[in-house]
Task: inverse folding
């Protein structure tokens, strides 16, 4: 699903173009139009249909390579590409927590990109690996970043209701999820907890010191196609009101907005005032799927505040995230 | 939906029999078989089909009356019945928080039933009103009661994923929930927070002192037919381990089990060990829908422990709850 | 739902503008933004938000009036508006089968519009009523028209799998349709059978002689948001091959295409070659929801050919249909 | 899914017991409780949990063997077992249309069982293969059998709306079917058409002459867990009324009922009078999932009559079907 989103987003991208596609040996040698069981509602871009799927080897690849490889193989392959001089912008989980690999959301921690200097130096690579977080982490971290900046974070408790597209294709069997909730997604809670701390951590001396706050996640799968909904409670370090939080979110702008990067949402965070929003059906596509939509901001009697956040898991949470990372890198001169 | 569950459960009840049905004026005078748009998978009991639906007046009613009236009208009607000498066992929300009305889960706070003495004395009633909690509260309170007993509760944070049957019939429009999550249920979070404290509170001098712990709820609607799933985090007053919690839950027995009340589950709490349970599809019907099923017990880095709990919202959470209340009352001599 | 589609389509219409909205007394006097529980994924047009909802009386209305009133009231109100001089372009079922009221699909029977001359003469009206067919009829009739033209129709047997949006809002309760099929839609089969014959009938001497072929419909509701899928078998009067049928469909163009009416699809009929299409998820939005998408064309051992057809029930099947009717009328000089 | 139904039904069977389980090499050697990802709502029978899964070889197997093997391998394996003397009662499609293999529904064509004599003689086998039809064929053939007996069949046109459990597990990906209809199931229409004619054919001189009527099928997948719904139109050879059809269905009894075979439904066909039944949600489980439920019987203007039929696809349509075949065989003396 993420690969298809990449193809779809690149087809109308002003800076980048999909020139080379690689996949498992099973697909190598086929046209993309044949190898791929297209599952997006918008049709497969004509430009992608005839691209030949190559083997996953660095040889023919262009400078910039997006990776959404299965984590079973991504680790080694991504290193191989970086070693061979490619800029690997990865959505895979393997290297996210490597101390010298940036885990990046351009609105949240663009300065962490500088980690690649450490990375190249220590590993002796011409290329580099840059990662974006897990689809569930992104919406959470987007909603937390303005709070951390303005008030300091102390505690974060998040329960997710995640869309099936997050599990890829074929992914979740209908017999598992029809009329059901699955209160478990393998490895997800650990990712959310660690990645959030790294994203909101501070870069110093070529290392990221994790954010100094506790994070706990409950991850659930529900029968939604796209859009992860999160019920979030937070405790802050400084006094604030519900209005202060809303103001912090509404006023949140960052580098991607200032530089008008092509995939950047004009408003990275939208706050809805209806009592029953955000909802995946109506809000997942906000700002072309790149906004995080927040609603139901109110006091929490256990922590301090609670709210609901939603973001599109395969756009803001995956392919769009990687694309925005690449745009940031280009605007910083890392790409020709 | 709750009314239909009452009819269905009473049809095979060893002690009680549905002899009299009342509803809105619109249905009065019709046979139940005609007035009711039966929505349960099990067929309408033959014994109910020909019962004539009466007006909602105390005159013809038997001693014991179950109420699942709309909260717009339940308040006055239930008082009228109690004044006229009936034992009103209500699933409606109106009187739950009245200081002299028992809010009762027989496994959790059977001693609170004694509140009816205050109630009858102060109000001068021959009859009485006894209530059960909201469908979302019950699963939560069932899971908390053994923890409160064994370790003391300090903080409770709960996010629910609630079934559509909780909204009655016609209830949730398909266009609202198909492929969607609705992060709001009117009045639900307040009910869960206050009712949980009353249920786990202490009765003294004819009043309930609410439990001394904080509760915060996020309530969401998902596309599930029956069974509310809850992601719960707790902090306790005494040291405990994950194993201690599981032992407390597995060992939990109470009056309904001791007295073998007909609707009582043999195991009020079941703990599943699979990493992805409980799930509404597989666990909502456990113990005829009367068990609370718990799983995924693990440490929580913000509070202390986290777990998932599930219970059937129209059985354990409504009709079955009221029935068990009535059974407790009979076993205590409140019914002829 | 159809009203919302009207508002949505008119907001970006080059010829028409929503200037006046009327609804039941309950909504009258409110802003549309308050009166309407907007259920489309695309946001409510800003232009509609502040329109005041009027009573359903002819007084303030503009010349052209679209009606998607409930059939309980549409009959009289539409006549009242026509009598008062308005051009009523209706999606309601009441007058569809009136002998002097055009039942119109601009691609199928644009000549039937001339019926309004009979209508105005016989009824002495300044205005007029023009109708479009039922949402299930439209896809069927679109697929049949090129076959009737090219080969003559003898028999038509259609089984529909209809989307919930066809039942309006709140419409189908989730408890009725979750994981279910409902093999009945009140009045639908009769409408499909009679309307198809009128649409494909011949206008002569101010009357429509119904098409000389048998039609039988099975109508079912399934859990789909938008897009009615139809399994269709036909027998023809002349010899034809599967390729002939496909050619007839692919070559089908009509007045709306020739005149480039704004809402007209460029290709009124699309034929897909994948073995498993059309599907509501991928095909309902084809040509902005105005195309009928056909697939799986193959021989039928009982009649002669069988195929699957799909069209968007609230666009091509309702609001878009009426809009295209109005565009045809404007291009024919019936509107100022 | 069918294997799980076998295990579930055998656990409470009065005549047979699951003593030996075989599956692919991948599972061989494991306990069933570990090898199987149990997907039924009722829990895995305790008796099955510890059975060791064997390789699919004839050696250790008991006399009676049920097969629901994948059709990629079933062909050869089933022959090997029959050659080795086993009675293979198969739900797989491979041998259904073999001229000397009975395709059997005990209520419909119990006399076809005699084909095994031809089979054993011609093939020189000690054992034998007996098959039941495809899950979509069974409901259709059950509804047609009483009509063929009473009035003779001329034409049959069927459109199915099939449950996802028919595709096994993991089966249909959620991303394919959520809010969607898939108008194609590989090989299904051909199976339904040919199998129905064989089932309702006549056995003479050791061969089955197919029924002398035309059958055409449209097969669709919808988002239902269990229960195939079919919209059926028929033309008969003799005059009949709607009441005649209903009488023929209601009066339908056959050998399994006379002999009170354990899995036989008391009423093989139920006719519902509500205008909107049968529905999978309410009717799939009728008579423990072994009844075919019919409703909406009415005239058809293209053929002669139309109606809706429903049957449970993994019980009556698969595991229950095979079990009933085995019971018939035991009652006929084919099993020790």
Result:
């Amino acid at each position: 699903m993420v690969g298809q989103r990449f193809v779809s987003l690149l087809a109308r991208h002003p800076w980048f173009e999909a020139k080379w596609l690689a996949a498992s040996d099973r697909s190598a040698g086929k046209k993309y139009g044949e190898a791929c069981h297209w599952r997006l509602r918008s049709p497969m871009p004509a430009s992608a249909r005839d691209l030949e799927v190559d083997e996953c080897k660095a040889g023919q690849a262009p400078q910039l390579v997006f990776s959404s490889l299965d984590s079973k193989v991504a680790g080694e392959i991504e290193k191989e590409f970086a070693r061979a001089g490619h800029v690997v912008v990865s959505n895979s989980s393997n290297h996210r927590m490597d101390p010298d690999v940036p885990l990046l959301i351009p609105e949240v921690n663009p300065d962490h990109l500088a980690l690649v200097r450490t990375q190249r130096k220590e590993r002796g690579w011409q290329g580099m690996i840059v990662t974006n977080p897990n689809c569930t982490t992104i919406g959470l971290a987007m909603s937390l970043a303005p709070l951390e900046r303005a008030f300091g974070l102390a505690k974060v408790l998040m329960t997710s209701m995640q869309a099936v597209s997050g599990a890829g294709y074929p992914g979740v069997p209908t017999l598992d999820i029809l009329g059901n909730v699955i209160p478990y997604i393998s490895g997800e809670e650990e990712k959310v907890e660690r990645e959030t701390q790294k994203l909101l951590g501070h870069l110093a001396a070529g290392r990221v010191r994790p954010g100094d706050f506790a994070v706990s996640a409950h991850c659930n799968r529900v029968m939604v196609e796209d859009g992860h909904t999160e019920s979030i409670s937070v405790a802050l370090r400084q006094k604030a009101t519900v209005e202060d939080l809303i103001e912090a979110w509404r006023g949140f702008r960052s580098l991607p907005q200032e530089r008008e990067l092509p995939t950047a949402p004009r408003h990275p965070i939208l706050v809805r005032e209806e009592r029953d929003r955000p909802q995946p059906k109506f809000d997942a596509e906000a700002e072309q799927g790149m906004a995080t939509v927040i609603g139901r901001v109110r006091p929490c009697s256990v922590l301090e505040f609670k709210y609901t956040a939603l973001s599109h898991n395969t756009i803001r949470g995956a392919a769009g995230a990687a694309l925005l990372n690449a745009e940031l890198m280009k605007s910083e001169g890392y790409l020709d």
